[in-house]
Amino acid sequence: MFKVDALGKACPLPVIETRKALKEHDTVTTLVDNKIATQNLEKMAKQLGYVYQMQEDSPTHYTVVITKGAVEPEQTVETEQTVNAGHKADDEYIVVINSDKMGIGEEKLGKNLMKTFIYTLTEQDVLPQRIIFYNGGVPIVTEGSESLADLKNLAAKGVEIYACGACLNFYGLTAKVAVGEITNMYRIVEMMRSAYRIVKP
Length: 201
Description:
Blueprint: E1 2-5, H1 13-22, E2 27-32, H2 35-48, E3 51-58, E4 61-67, H3 77-84, E5 94-97, H4 107-122, E6 130-133, H5 148-156, E7 160-164, H6 165-170, E8 181-183, H7 185-193, E9 198-199
Parallel strand pairs: 1-2, 5-6, 5-9, 6-7, 7-8
Antiparallel strand pairs: 2-4, 3-4
């Protein structure tokens, strides 16, 4: 059984190194030191249709075993791309937000503009496929955010909402996420590179 020692390694290195190892080995054991890393590995295993097992050895030591198996893979960005190749709608787009402010200038105005931007998304005839939050944008998906109701409205209409797990962890906001799904940088890159059009306020 091949082993990846990802202790102390930041997102998305545990995912990248495990994915590389799985190209050459049927079973890979990965050691990580935080729960978010285990969740990221679980998502990757589901996307690939592999069997995932996790053991919490201590609050800072987790053992994840991923085995190639006959599990129905979740639809991934790649498969979506394959299925939809040549059939992208002209108005298809995703939104990426990396700040709680829109534009450069006075802070209060910037925050008001961002709040208005997100509200205005809810009023569009064509909604984005996804909204991805990272770095200074992740507080917007957490408890107390003035845009939470609008984001929940968008999620209820089928808009996928993602927030960078490493960013949430950095700002101490992981436990306060109130809408959407926590993801990792590997997945963020996948979503951005496969997007037909990216809107960034």
